[in-house]
Design goal:
Elements: H1 11-14, H2 24-35, E1 40-43, E2 50-56, E3 59-66, H3 73-89, E4 94-95, E5 108-111, E6 118-123, H4 139-155, H5 175-182, H6 189-209, E7 215-218, E8 227-229, E9 238-241, E10 248-251, H7 254-263, H8 275-284, H9 289-316, H10 321-325, H11 327-337, H12 342-352, E11 378-380, H13 400-410, E12 415-417, E13 439-440, E14 443-447, E15 451-454, E16 459-465, E17 468-473, E18 476-481, E19 495-496, E20 501-505, E21 510-516, E22 526-527, H14 532-536, E23 539-540, H15 559-566, E24 581-585, E25 588-591, E26 596-599, H16 612-624, H17 634-645, E27 653-657, H18 660-675, E28 679-683, H19 692-696, H20 707-710, E29 715-718, H21 736-749, E30 754-760, H22 775-785, E31 789-793, H23 808-811, E32 818-821, E33 832-836, H24 838-842, H25 858-873, H26 876-895, E34 901-907, E35 910-915, H27 926-938, E36 941-942, E37 944-946, E38 952-955, H28 963-981
Parallel strand pairs: 4-9, 11-12, 26-36, 28-29, 28-30, 30-31, 31-32
Antiparallel strand pairs: 1-2, 2-3, 3-6, 5-6, 7-10, 8-9, 12-14, 13-22, 14-21, 15-20, 16-17, 16-19, 17-18, 18-21, 21-23, 24-25, 25-26, 27-33, 32-33, 34-35, 35-38, 37-38
Helix pairs in contact: 4-7, 4-8, 5-6, 5-9, 6-9, 7-9, 9-11, 9-12, 16-25, 17-25, 21-22, 26-28, 27-28
Length: 990
């Protein structure tokens, strides 16, 4: 093929590349005159080209792309050939390839425009919309972006064409020159200085490895603006690529760097959020260690280029709305790219890819850094999540670490020292949408008496100011921080001998000791867990400097993999990448990284996590006796009496078991034994347990997708009386009860009367939907009329959670024959109960013997009694009324602002927030709900979906939750819904 011999574009020759100026009407005429299309043209915007969506009767036909006049035919040919190559080699990707006529020729034409003729061509339209806009991008979306970049990189690896020989302002190989040329267009002096400094540092880092970076053809613009969402995916997952206008020959790793930079302006995205893209790219197209070293500096250079180029283009193309709209997001990209030091991000990426990083081995100290230190007098202060020192919420006290250290000093320790690399729970606030800095990069010392800090080896004093000294120590720099009322003794820049005094400290002083690589950015004393691997790579453990052994590596390995290897897979866990939770306190759960999460799902612990009364009562009983309930002891009697007293007459007889599943199973056996009737009627969309009988009556499709088809013949179901999305809605919900009565009557008429009707008294598994008024009255009457019993499953909603009622059946103004209780009874201790009448209980004898080894054991009974006492003494049912109303009001207010909220269900502190895509069809927003739960976890809240469609947030926190936490939840939910509701589906903009 013969190519145009004219030189390809050179930015430094042209410098100003304003987009061709054409109106939509002119574009329509070009489509008609040159391509024979009768269409409507709509401008799509571009920085340097002109793009128009062509539609016929509202249906997209093609995209008309008018190339910048600076781009030659050779360059355009290269772009079309590269697009065809990617499309052919990567069938899973959609490409905006050039359209061709019946003879296979490209639909391309030279057309007149202001300033001379320009090249116009028709490109394939890709439906789905791009990832543009501020919408938060989930890890799944970010990973998909990296995967696409890797596929494109592989496809173009061997592509050669003279049209690649270009000098583009977007090519990071020229970033230093571009920034130097355009920097003056950044008017603000502070921003201009920041861009220059960042460019200088990043360019120096790239230059160090530039000769080792492979080059190839690159798309160079696989950004959120040019990645098209799959039209088959509800969530934004890219599978389409547009705009090869920046195609050139450059460093291969630039393909990834450009994609990463475009993620950084999205709502809630921080530098560490790009790691899924890096991993996904690396899996497809492995990165070398040199490319890893260059990657984040290239992200910074891309960000700097965007800032200066955007300002420049706005100056030369003043009425280009697309250019002006991008200025703020370009600055945000730069801010995020430079928010974390490049060295930290490089080490973080190295660790994320499992690549080897050679840590610098610290020198052995000749002397301890504390003169006359006796290691035997050091008490090590454990501030981790698992430490006993942080029990009972002690970690939340102001200056908790100082108080805990003071306690150890008062017990006789001469010095108190912390752990290097440990997550300090004392640094974590209870409620925060951002992870706090908890990982220690050094150790802290508290001194009981006066002490002298000395040089641990020969070196040089680099810094000596009040409150801080820096000393060379082997391959590291030893940093010492102390009260700023104290000044170092020797002057700087002099040689030091081991043992030479540095600082004389008064009694009670606190000292921070850290070892850092020379030339590294200043390392904070505590860093956020997401960046800890990057920061710690710049440090070494200073513990040997105080005479103690260095910290060893954590022995746990990949705990989640170990769980998966030994645990049955049907025993699932929350989240794909769950935090490791090892502590709870009240309505908070705490991870091993020192992150406190607001717990909005734990109806198992109504009193709150780690309640002192439960701990003390259970521990005391364990010290005395724990055996089975056939022995004679007081606790089981007292507990059974208290339970029975909570129920209305004639419910006066108690069975104690270990779980809700056992309770439901036993209740069914009681009903069948008492009535002699073996058929059971249950509601659809319900969950009752995992034993044979309780599973048989569980019809939730999420718990068992085949539940309705596989249930045994003795189980009969009636329609879910869901007044929001069921067959009968709102005022017509009264039809559910007569229909259920008809089913029960027909069973009796056929000679198979129901022995029991079983249901939750408040529809918990469906998201806290109240049963229609009078529903249980009619259904209970029908089943009893035919000799059956009414069983109320109170496992989720009982024990005061509903606020206005202690038991859910009270809301329906009925009294069941059998009541099942569990979950809340033991505040996490395995405990369940069935309460019924003496007559029904006695009929169990006809079936044989009943015994539960640990049901009603002394420890279980004490746990149950203590829960009841605390519910009463702390007025937790009253709190469910008050705080639950505040929470529901807040959720209803959100519903007025977020169209995805279909309904707010529930009562007290058993609520459900149902998310729908359409308020008429009530199409469930299942994928959106899952994405929302993941985003809420990022923001410090644990909440999970429920319902047959998994589109309802189940909101059932510990009953001790307070107004501050409730407000935090609604504000955080508002933020997450806003971030995920942004429409990122801007039209195809090649």
């Amino acid at each position: 093929m013969t190519y145009d011999k004219s030189p390809t574009v050179d930015f430094f020759t042209h410098e100003a590349l304003p987009a061709p100026r054409l109106t939509a009407d002119e574009a329509g005429r070009i489509a008609a005159e040159h391509f024979g299309l009768t269409v409507r043209a709509e401008s799509l915007g571009s920085q340097q080209d002109a793009n128009f969506l062509l539609t016929a009767q509202g249906t997209p036909v093609a995209v008309l792309k008018i190339a910048n006049p600076a781009f030659t035919a050779t360059e355009i040919d290269a772009q079309d050939m590269a697009a065809d190559l990617i499309a052919d080699s990567q069938p899973g990707l959609r490409l905006a390839t050039v359209l061709r006529d019946a003879g296979g020729k490209r639909r391309i034409a030279l057309v007149p425009a202001d300033g001379g003729p320009v090249t116009a061509r028709l490109l394939r339209y890709l439906p789905g919309g791009t990832l543009s806009g501020p919408r938060h991008l989930s890890p799944r979306t970010v990973a998909a972006m990296g995967r696409v970049a890797g596929q494109v990189s592989n496809a173009l690896r061997s592509f050669e064409h003279p049209g690649l020989e270009r000098v583009l302002q977007w090519d990071p190989r020229h970033a230093d020159r571009v920034v130097a040329r355009l920097l003056d267009h950044v008017a603000e002096a502070e921003r201009r200085s920041a861009v220059l400094a960042a460019t200088t540092d990043a360019w120096a880092a790239v230059v160090e490895v530039a000769d080792r970076l492979p080059r190839q053809a690159v798309h160079l613009d696989l950004t959120d603006d040019n990645l098209v969402r799959s039209p088959d995916s509800t969530l934004p997952l890219p599978d389409g690529i547009i705009d090869l206008g920046d195609l050139t020959d450059s460093w291969a790793v630039c393909e990834l760097a450009v994609s990463l930079s475009s993620v950084l302006h999205h709502d809630g995205v921080q530098p560490h959020n790009v790691l899924p893209a890096v991993r996904a790219f690396h899996e497809i197209r492995p990165l070398s260690t040199f490319e890893v070293a260059a990657l984040w500096p290239l992200v910074v250079l891309r960000a700097a280029t965007l800032v200066v180029s955007g300002r420049h283009q706005a100056a030369v193309d003043g009425d280009n709305a697309y250019v002006h709209a991008a200025l703020d997001r370009e600055w945000r990209i730069f801010q995020q790219a430079t928010a974390v030091p490049t060295a930290v991000m490089t080490h973080l990426i190295t660790e994320a890819l499992g690549l080897i990083h050679d840590r610098v081995t610290p020198a052995e100290p000749a002397l301890p850094v504390l003169a006359e230190l006796d290691p035997a007098g050091i008490a090590v202060l454990d501030l981790s999540v698992g430490s006993d020192t942080t029990d009972h919420g002690a970690w939340l006290a102001e200056a908790a670490d100082d108080h805990l250290a003071a306690a150890l000093l008062s017990e006789g320790a001469a010095t108190v020292a912390t752990h290097y690399g440990q997550a300090r729970l004392t640094a974590a606030p209870a409620l925060s949408t951002a992870s706090p800095a908890t990982i220690a990069t050094g150790v802290d010392l508290w001194l009981d008496g006066p002490a002298v800090l000395q040089a641990p080896g020969d070196g040089e004093l680099l810094a000596a100011v009040p409150g801080h000294a820096a000393v060379t120590f082997g391959p590291h720099v030893l940093h010492l921080s102390f009260p700023d009322t104290v000044a170092p003794i020797p002057p700087t820049d002099i040689p030091l001998r081991a043992g030479e005094p540095l600082v004389a400290l008064p009694a009670g002083a606190r000292v921070h000791v850290s070892l850092q690589e020379p030339g590294a950015p200043t390392v904070p004393a505590l860093v956020r867990p997401e960046y800890a691997a990057g920061w710690l790579a710049l440090t070494a453990d200073p513990t040997p400097l105080i005479g103690l052994p260095a910290a060893g590596s954590a022995p746990d390995g990949d705990l989640l993999a170990r769980r998966d290897a030994v645990f049955a897979t049907v025993q699932e866990h929350y989240y794909d990448n769950p935090p490791r939770i090892e502590r709870g306190w009240r309505h908070h759960l705490v991870s091993t990284e020192g992150r406190s999460y607001l717990d909005m799902v734990n109806n198992v612990t109504p009193l709150g996590h780690a309640h002192p009364r439960i701990e003390q009562a259970v521990a005391r009983q364990v010290r005395k006796l724990n055996t089975n309930s056939r022995f004679h002891y007081a606790a089981v009697v007292e507990f059974a009496e208290r339970l029975a007293a909570l129920l209305p007459d004639p419910l006066d007889t108690v069975f104690l078991v270990n779980s809700g599943s056992e309770a439901v199973d036993l209740a069914i056996r009681l009903a069948i034994g008492a009535t002699g009737q073996h058929e059971v009627v249950a509601l659809r969309e319900a969950y009752h347990g995992w034993t044979y009988a309780s599973d048989a009556v569980s019809t939730s499709l999420q718990d068992n997708p085949n539940a309705l088809a596989t249930r045994p013949r003795w189980v009969h179901t009636v329609d879910s009386p869901n007044s929001y999305r069921g067959r009968w809605r709102d005022e017509q919900a009264g039809n559910y009860a007569p229909e259920a009565v008809q089913v029960i009557d027909r069973m009796a008429a056929s000679g198979h009367p129901a022995g029991a009707f079983l249901s939750e008294s408040f529809y918990g598994n469906a998201g806290g939907v109240a049963l229609p008024d009078g529903y249980l009255q009619q259904v209970y009457a029908a089943v009893r009329r035919h000799g059956g019993l009414a069983i109320a499953d109170e496992i989720q909603v009982g024990y005061g959670r509903l606020g206005s009622w202690f038991w859910g059946f009270e809301q329906q103004q009925v009294v069941p024959d059998v009541v099942c209780v569990a979950k809340a009874m033991g505040n996490g201790h395995p405990l369940g109960a069935v309460i019924t009448t003496r007559a029904i209980a006695d009929r169990y004898r006809d079936q044989g013997y009943f015994f539960s080894s640990t049901g009603g054991s002394p420890v279980s009974s004490i746990a149950g009694l203590t829960v009841l006492d605390t519910l009463r003494d702390e007025d937790l049912q009253g709190n469910a009324v008050r705080t639950g109303a505040r929470l529901k009001d807040g959720l209803q207010a959100l519903a007025t602002r977020h169209g995805i909220i279909g309904a707010v269900h529930g009562s007290g502190l058993y609520l459900g927030l149902e998310l729908v895509r359409d308020h008429t069809t009530l199409e469930p927003a299942t994928e959106e709900t899952a994405e929302l739960c993941d985003r809420m976890l990022d923001l410090g809240v644990i909440v999970q979906p429920t319902g047959d469609h998994l589109n309802i947030l189940k909101i059932k926190p510990p009953l001790c939750i307070d107004p501050t936490a409730v407000d935090f939840f609604t504000h955080t939910l508002d933020r997450a819904l806003t971030e995920l509701a942004h429409d990122g589906t801007s039209e195809h903009t090649p």
